[in-house]
Write a structure and sequence with these properties.
alpha/beta; eight-stranded parallel β-sheet; two-stranded antiparallel sheet; 11 helices; globular
Length: 342
């Protein structure tokens, strides 16, 4: 086989022993997770905003960003709940480019997965310890989830992973909301099939063990836009799109039907400043339709300290090295605009 074994990696249990979540913070997470769950079950009418960098590439700049978020959260907590995106692994369309902190804890050096596993654990833990936020990350690889599962309050499954059976089955193990993005083709049936699968019990292989999952009733749909056969981005955040998903939800026996709209990616054609307009349109649709108000639980926004994007060798503190993001000033204004529009 064309494979070279480089090093044995620590187990999740070993990493958790080295970098534990304290008993007090574990109790705080239970309360935070209940607040998030109440949004998806309809017990709370708070609006969820998953916001942060496309990729969490630097511990210091990410922490500065989340500290700023914490100040805003205090002012909007009666109507909104923020969850910082701490995305530590990045899918790459053609396999090239920066693959996230897990692969490269130092973006300017080569990959080192051992250091990366430690780096992602430390970053999430430091955010929790310093800001009181619990975090969101993408389940890019199912094996990585168990290094962070006691820290995360939200998990996303990306457009390229949503058809993968292992991602779907592993989502059925999780006890926090798992958002299933529509695939890059845009097929809503694929997305909702993933939601259904994650909500069921399954017996399968997980990290070398035969396991039975409980099923995850908080699995739900994320609309992120699509790409047609010519490579053209097709948005799916419009009023009609959400109603189509709602009708498909009603045809299926799914618990806690819910929609999150991803304002970037194919929905914005990666024109990051369009996120502001898209979020406002989504909120207008929510205010206009009783069904959308009931089903739409929140939005995803890509945002960092400095707007735009850069190459790895063009260092700029707090600027994305993957997809372009809103800068802090526009992000802060948008969060307060959301608050006023709710």
């Amino acid at each position: 086989m064309g494979i070279n074994y480089l090093q044995e990696l620590p187990t999740p249990m070993e990493i958790k022993r080295l970098f534990p979540l304290s008993k007090e913070l574990a109790q705080a997470k239970e309360a935070f997770d209940k607040e998030v769950a109440d949004i998806f079950t309809g017990k709370s009418d708070k609006f969820l905003v998953l916001i942060g960098p496309c990729s969490a590439d630097s511990e210091d700049s990410v922490l500065e960003y989340v500290h700023r978020l914490a100040k805003v959260q205090e002012n909007i907590k009666d109507k909104m709940l923020l969850i910082p995106r701490i995305y530590t692994g990045k899918p790459r369309t053609n396999g090239d480019g920066y693959k996230g902190l897990l692969h490269q804890p130092d973006p300017e050096r080569g990959p080192n997965m051992h250091e990366g596993i430690i780096a992602i654990r430390k970053m999430h833990l430091r955010v929790i310890q310093e800001t009181g936020f619990f975090t969101a990350d993408e389940m890019l690889y199912v094996d990585n989830l168990t290094y962070l599962d006691d820290l995360l309050s939200y998990i996303a499954v990306g457009a390229r992973s949503v058809e993968n059976q292992e991602h779907r089955l592993t989502s059925s193990v999780c006890d926090v909301p798992v958002g299933m993005k529509n695939p890059t083709s845009g097929d809503f049936s694929v997305m909702l099939n993933a939601v259904y699968t994650a909500q069921q019990q399954h017996q399968f292989i997980h990290r070398g063990m035969e396991v039975i999952s409980d099923g995850n009733p908080l699995s739900h749909a994320i609309l992120r836009g699509a790409v047609d056969q010519y490579g053209t981005n097709i948005p799916n955040y419009h009023y009609e799109d959400m109603h189509r998903v709602i009708e498909m939800y009603k045809e299926r026996a799914l618990a806690n039907p819910a929609i999150i709209v991803d304002a970037n990616h194919a929905n914005s054609n990666k024109q990051y400043k369009q996120q502001t307009r898209i979020v406002k349109e989504v909120l207008h649709s929510r205010n206009h339709s009783e069904d959308i108000h009931k089903f739409l639980k929140g939005v995803m926004i890509e945002s960092y300290l400095v707007e735009g994007t850069r190459k790895i060798d063009e260092y700029c503190y707090g600027k994305s090295i993957t997809d372009p993001c809103l800068g802090w000033e526009d992000s802060e204004k948008l969060l307060y605009d959301i608050y006023r529009l709710l």
